[in-house]
Amino acid sequence: MNQEQSLVQKLGQNEYSVRLELQADYLAGVWARHAEELGYLEEGDLDEALTVASAVGDDRIQEQMQGYVVPDTFIHGTAEQRSRWFYKGYEVGNLAGWDTFSVSANNL
């Protein structure tokens, strides 16, 4: 059994997926920071990225699509988690805080 399979078994498929998605959000924030430093972002781009990250949270999507939320079925993270991890990556600007697998579920 490889390390990824072991983590999936330990966390469960959904939580593993959420942690992986939040890690991707963090990395997107790191990219945004570097894009800004290179002068590629325009005013309002960061706010727009945070709005989009929030809009694709499982809670928001489920509420829109079915009118109620089922947290046990989340595979991407909540709106708050997604925008927070994106912004964290943007603030830090490097890989120092990207390991979503080492934080407790309460700190996701």
Summarize the structure in words.
- The chain is mainly α.
- The protein has one domain (11-101).
- The protein contains 5 helices and no strands.
- The protein has helices spanning 3-11, 13-37, 45-55, 58-66, 79-92.
End-to-end separation: 26 Å
What form results from the Cα inertia axes?
Answer: flat
- The percent range for strand residues is under 5%
Number of domains: 1
Radius of gyration: 15 Å
Indicate the mean pLDDT. Answer: 93
Helix content: 55-70%
Instruction: Count every beta strand, where a strand is a DSSP E run of 2 or more residues.
Output: 0
Number of helices: 5
Could you give a short account of the major beta sheet?
A: none
Order of helices and strands: HHHHH
Uncertain regions spanning at least 5 consecutive residues: none
Structural class: mainly alpha
Topology, please?
Blueprint: H1 3-11, H2 13-37, H3 45-55, H4 58-66, H5 79-92
Helix pairs in contact: 1-2, 2-5, 3-5
